[in-house]
């Protein structure tokens, strides 16, 4: 029903409007008594064989919702009912910011992909914390953190520290996002020197807390092999817990969509099916270079159980979805879990 009726209606709206409409709709129906329980019964798959213990956390299943979908922690309780094993909020910045000018999200239906240049639009970390104070502790929540657009790279570490401190009591793990292509010069923080400083600072801060929490690094699919070698070294040296691979790509090769239309869209990160192979290649290479010494969470082009299994076979411990959830609908997570 989703693909034949609901998706065609939603796709009549621009992507950002469809996103906001869906959020409001899901919120409204959850106010009806019994709807949450009904959705859990319909979509959640509870099976011990699906449990995964990764960086000290027991996940009820290996399929999570990637950052970017619920940036401000407004819908995580309701989204849990659709079967996710964990939900990652953010990317959050110290101060709320509007992001890039609209339009800033574009569908590529022929390629089952999206291009976005949202630009870390969010209401600020303190606003998200207020909503996270009401969380069910059984839900596993990751906090994806970044820097404000106006913060120069030389001062970026302070922004990540502010977000880390604010979220510490309310999330189960952290993700350091230095790989979005939509904040000017952000990806320069993936270079060895600034990345080492950033991760060492956060890990030292982590050690001062009552209980250390896992820290992961989210990387781009466009990194060079040399950068991957550096990333593996930095993870070992800093002592952080793992990697999320990968963010969106700036590469436009191999698309079916008309090249003139793609060019007219302009800058932005491409996600969905077109990034699947690039993401898998990065995961395989990371697993080889690290000899499996740290966990990898895979994201990029996961639509089916076969896609998820491909990522797990490549070396991932967990997977995340975003664009696939938009194209495949709320039954996707259940289908993947049943397949696994």
TrEMBL record:
UniProt topology in membrane: Peripheral membrane protein
Example of a GO cellular component annotation carried by this entry: plasma membrane
Active-site annotation: 180
Pathway: Pyrimidine metabolism; UMP biosynthesis via de novo pathway; orotate from (S)-dihydroorotate (quinone route): step 1/1
Record Pfam families: DHO_dh
Co-factor requirement: FMN
Domain of life: Bacteria
InterPro entries per record: Aldolase_TIM (IPR013785), DHO_dehydrogenase (IPR050074), Dihydroorotate_DH_1_2 (IPR012135), Dihydroorotate_DH_2 (IPR005719), Dihydroorotate_DH_cat (IPR005720), Dihydroorotate_DH_CS (IPR001295)
GO molecular function: dihydroorotate dehydrogenase (quinone) activity
Enzyme class per UniProt: oxidoreductase
Keyword set, alphabetical order: Cell membrane, Flavoprotein, FMN, Membrane, Oxidoreductase, Pyrimidine biosynthesis
Binding residues annotated for substrate, in chain numbering: 71, 116-120, 177, 182, 247-248
CDD domains listed in its UniProt record: DHOD_2_like (cd04738)
Catalytic activity: (S)-dihydroorotate + a quinone = orotate + a quinol
The protein's Enzyme Commission number: 1.3.5.2
Cofactor binding description: Binds 1 FMN per subunit.
Binding site for FMN: 67-71, 91, 144, 177, 218, 246, 272, 301, 322-323
Residue ranges constituting the Dihydroorotate dehydrogenase catalytic domain according to the UniProt record: 50-340
GO biological process entries: 'de novo' pyrimidine nucleobase biosynthetic process; 'de novo' UMP biosynthetic process
Intracellular or extracellular location(s): Cell membrane; Membrane
NCBIfam families named among the record's database cross-references: PRK05286.1-2, PRK05286.2-5, pyrD_sub2
Family under the similarity heading: Belongs to the dihydroorotate dehydrogenase family. Type 2 subfamily.
Assembly mode: Monomer.
Task of the protein: Catalyzes the conversion of dihydroorotate to orotate with quinone as electron acceptor.
Protein name stated in the entry: Dihydroorotate dehydrogenase (quinone)
Organism this protein belongs to: Phaeocystidibacter marisrubri
């Amino acid at each position: 029903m989703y693909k034949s009726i609901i998706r065609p209606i939603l796709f009549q709206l621009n992507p950002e409007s469809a996103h906001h409409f869906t959020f409001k709709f899901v919120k409204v129906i959850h106010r009806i008594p019994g709807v949450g329980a009904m959705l859990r019964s319909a979509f959640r798959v509870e099976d011990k064989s699906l449990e995964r213990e990764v960086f000290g956390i027991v996940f009820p299943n290996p399929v999570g919702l990637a950052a970017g979908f619920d940036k401000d922690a407004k819908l995580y309780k309701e989204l849990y009912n659709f079967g996710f094993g964990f939900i990652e909020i953010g990317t959050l910045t110290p101060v709320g910011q509007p992001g890039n000018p609209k339009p800033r999200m574009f569908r590529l239906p022929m390629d089952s992909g999206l291009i976005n240049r949202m630009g870390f639009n969010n209401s600020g970390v303190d606003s998200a914390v207020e909503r996270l104070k009401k969380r069910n502790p059984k839900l596993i929540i990751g906090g994806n953190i970044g820097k404000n657009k106006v913060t120069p790279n030389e001062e970026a570490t302070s922004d990540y520290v502010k977000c880390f401190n604010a979220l510490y009591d309310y999330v189960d793990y952290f993700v350091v996002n230095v790989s979005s292509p939509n904040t000017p010069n952000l990806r320069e923080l993936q270079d060895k020197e600034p990345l080492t400083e950033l991760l060492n600072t956060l890990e030292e801060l982590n050690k001062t807390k009552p209980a250390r929490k896992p820290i992961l690094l989210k990387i781009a699919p466009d990194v060079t092999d040399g950068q991957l070698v550096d990333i593996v070294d930095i993870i070992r040296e800093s002592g952080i817990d793992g990697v999320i691979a990968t963010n969106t790509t700036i590469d436009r090769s191999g698309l079916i969509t008309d090249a003139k239309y793609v060019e007219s869209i302009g800058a932005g990160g491409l996600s969905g099916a077109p990034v699947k192979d690039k993401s898998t290649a990065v995961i395989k290479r990371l697993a080889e270079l690290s000899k499996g010494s740290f966990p990898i969470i895979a994201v990029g082009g996961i639509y089916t159980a076969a896609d998820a299994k491909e990522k797990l076979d490549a070396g991932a411990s967990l997977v995340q979805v975003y664009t696939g959830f938009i194209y495949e609908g709320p039954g996707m997570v259940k289908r993947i879990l049943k397949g696994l």
